[in-house]
Amino acid sequence: MTKIETQIRQDFYQFLKAGQKETAEACRYLLSLLQKQALRQENGLTEKAALAILQKELKAKQEAREMFAKAGRQDLLTKEEKEIAILKRYLPAELSDEEIKKVIAAEKAAGKDDFGSLMGAVMGRVKGRADGRRVSELVREALGK
């Protein structure tokens, strides 16, 4: 069992005891995602794989939030936002734009001056800690495109 899975399980029981049903249900859902993936892998779930699962789920929830906002479904939008907040508790903190710009500058100084190579190098260094869309915008800005 990974550290993330252990933390989610502990939080799940705390939320149940505190009567926070919605939060407990979100934790139960995350645990089920992690357990399904652990069953698929022979060696069990690694910390890195668990983070990847949670990041994938975060991205899906963010896309759903955008769709609900466009459709004017405030009830579902609120639910997705709560679940996103819960998910973010278990993920590493995202890098700020300034931190991403420093990585971009370092890679640019290393000779990466076209979009593809610069984007690949930057994403390799910030993967899991920054949204690809945001990184892409900052890379384009740094290249003056």
Mean pLDDT: 90
Q: Percent helix among the residues?
A: over 70%
Question: What is the N-to-C succession of helices and strands?
Answer: HHHHHHH
> So how many helices?
7
Q: Beta-strand level of the residues, as a percent range?
A: under 5%
Structurally, how many domains make up the residues?
2
Find the structural class using helix and strand composition: mainly alpha
Gyration radius from CA atoms, angstroms = 18 Å
Which term fits the overall shape? globular
CATH architecture of the largest domain: Orthogonal Bundle
CATH class of the largest domain reads: Mainly Alpha
Q: Considering the protein shown, what is the CATH homologous superfamily of the largest domain?
A: Uncharacterised protein YqeY/AIM41, N-terminal domain
Number of strands: 0
Distance between the termini: 45 Å
CATH topology of the largest domain: Hypothetical Protein Yqey, Chain: A, domain1
Unreliable residue stretches = none
Largest sheet: none
Features:
Arc Repressor Mutant, subunit A; 7 helices; 2 domains; Hypothetical Protein Yqey, Chain: A, domain1; mainly alpha; about 140 residues; about 80% helix
